[in-house]
Write a structure and sequence with these properties.
Blueprint: E1 6-12, E2 34-37, E3 49-55, H1 60-75, E4 81-86, H2 97-108, E5 115-118, H3 124-131, E6 141-145, E7 151-156, H4 160-172, H5 177-190, E8 215-220, H6 241-247, H7 254-261, E9 264-270, H8 272-280, E10 320-322, E11 335-340, H9 348-362, E12 366-381, H10 385-389, E13 399-403, E14 410-416, H11 419-426, E15 436-438, E16 447-452, H12 453-456, H13 464-475, E17 477-492
Helix pairs in contact: 8-9
Length: 498
């Protein structure tokens, strides 16, 4: 027999419903079907504390807890009794039920050096303890009874350390029942309900999804979800951290916002071809570089700031569809897609890999990135234009001003660049036409030019034919259709194996 004034009971099982039981209530009596090991615990002595642990012979976590309970009994020897109750055994109605439990306990030997008992066919322990706590599912569970015979603690799962901390306060005298009840109530208000029959995180089921580690979702878009598709998985949100912070220092909170989303990609109202382009295409922007990207009035230095590199004119901006039945790829059906990964997996290489795997699972098309001749415009110059446009103030900074006269108003640009004319066309609708490739032969550098007001303001005119005419008449530059080798994402049917 183990002598003690603090008792720990172990009950291993599931239960049915009974009268409700909560912290602060008088503990139910311990009346098992049979005692297997140690002297029976017949009641709660005033001034002594008790702990009840519940499990089953078929429960692996309960088996792991057995030696821990023995160590607990040894630590509190003279003050603590540990009692294990086997409950809800699968063969409780069969003959030989108790003999099997006795064999289990004998096999544990010195690993199980505390009082052991078993519930019977009537399942009284289940009803009075687990069922009364509305916790009939899951074992092990632990109950702690204070020196007044009241419920002081309830722990779901094998949580011996938490049990031990509570026992310490009871033995040392710092325990306060009111404090335990307050803490339990606070915990209950934050407990998230979960229904295994419903999707996780949907309508708050199990939480709002803010703490997931990895998530991938594809849904059909709905008309009431407003938003434009995100057509680029950018690869430079996470490089040159300090330099990037410095660049955005004048925009409060901007870097932090970018850093907070770099481990995910999501898009709404997107077609499947657009999603394939994101997954297999380039992760650099498809826009022509613009002076305004640098915040200085100059074209950005992509060596110092690789964030501003562009795939313009080298990668085709749309996936080509070469399938026999392209109904799902016709662009009529829109989709929403979201991918979130751990920060250490947040590079564009990883994100694209995961999106590719998702698309393969969802749709199964064969995809290749090929080099093909694709349509474009070549910007060319008439003879003598380079000399005509050469700046008269080399080394000065770029600037522009409006000059008005009775005849016509102009924007006059000093120390500009030949790329400025490409930007004039692309500024409003960058994806609406073929890329424009500089073939003027004019070296990158500073030029002077003037443009009529209606063509010098990016946001006042979107007349492509008018721009073409203006460029030739005013500046001697002209656009010519042609083809250029570019990388292209191609979607095909899966080849059947012979």
């Amino acid at each position: 027999m183990i002598r003690s004034s603090l008792i720990i009971l172990t009950v291993l099982c599931q239960t049915s419903l009974a009268q409700s039981l909560k912290l602060g209530d008088l503990a139910p009596p311990i009346e098992p079907y049979a005692w297997i090991k140690g002297a029976p615990v017949t009641g709660y002595e005033k001034g002594s504390a008790y702990v009840v642990e519940m499990g089953a012979t078929w429960c692996k976590p309960c088996a792991v807890a057995i030696p821990k309970l023995t160590k607990l009994a040894e630590k509190y020897k003279g003050d603590v009794k540990v009692v294990g109750l086997f409950v809800k055994e699968q063969d409780v109605h069969k003959s030989g039920y108790l003999e099997r439990i006795k064999g289990y306990v004998e096999k544990k030997g010195e690993l199980m050096m505390y009082h052991v008992a078993a519930d019977g066919p009537s399942k009284e322990i289940e009803k009075r303890w687990l069922g009364a706590m509305s916790m009939s599912r899951g074992v092990p569970q632990t109950f702690v009874i204070d020196k007044e015979g009241r419920m002081a603690g309830h722990f779901v799962g094998s949580n011996i350390k938490a049990v031990e901390r509570l026992i310490d306060t009871i033995v040392e005298g710092s325990y306060r029942l009111e404090q335990q009840i307050d803490e339990k109530e606070k915990l209950n208000t934050t407990v998230l309900k979960y229904d295994h029959k419903k999707p996780l995180f949907v309508h708050g089921n199990g939480g709002d999804g803010s703490d997931f580690i990895f998530r991938s979702i594809l849904t059909k878009a709905k008309e009431n979800v407003k938003g434009s598709p995100d057509l680029l998985l950018e690869s430079y949100f996470w490089i040159d951290t300090e330099r990037w912070k410095k660049l955005l220092a004048d925009i409060p909170g901007t870097y932090q916002k970018l850093d907070s989303v770099k481990s995910r990609y999501q898009t709404v109202n997107t077609t499947i071809p657009q999603l394939y382009q994101v997954a297999f295409g380039d992760t650099l922007d498809y826009l022509h570089p613009m002076t305004r990207w640098s915040y200085t009035g100059d074209y950005p230095d992509t060596t110092e700031y690789p964030r501003f590199k562009s795939a313009y004119g080298r990668h085709w901006r749309e996936a080509l569809i070469e399938v026999s039945d392209g109904a799902i790829l016709d662009g009529q059906q829109k989709w929403n897609y979201a991918l979130s990964v751990p920060k250490e997996k947040s590079t564009a290489v990883h994100l694209q890999k995961y999106i590719q795997e998702d698309l393969q699972r969802y749709f199964g098309y064969e995809v290749a990135v090929e080099t093909r001749p694709m349509p474009c415009w070549f910007l060319k110059a008439r003879p003598g234009v380079a000399e005509k446009l050469a700046t008269i103030t080399p080394g000065a900074r770029y600037q522009s001003e409006r000059v008005d006269s009775e005849v016509q108003s102009f924007f006059v640009f000093s120390n500009g660049d030949i790329r400025d004319f490409i930007n004039l066309i692309h500024a409003l609708n960058p994806y609406d036409d073929f890329p424009i490739i500089d073939k003027t032969g004019i070296p990158a550098g500073k030029i002077d030019y003037k443009l009529p007001v209606e063509y010098g303001d990016y946001y006042r005119n979107n007349d492509f034919e008018g721009y073409k005419k203006m460029l030739e008449e005013e500046l001697g530059l002209y656009l010519e259709k042609g083809e250029k080798q570019m990388k292209v994402v191609v979607i095909r049917d899966v080849k059947e194996e012979l």
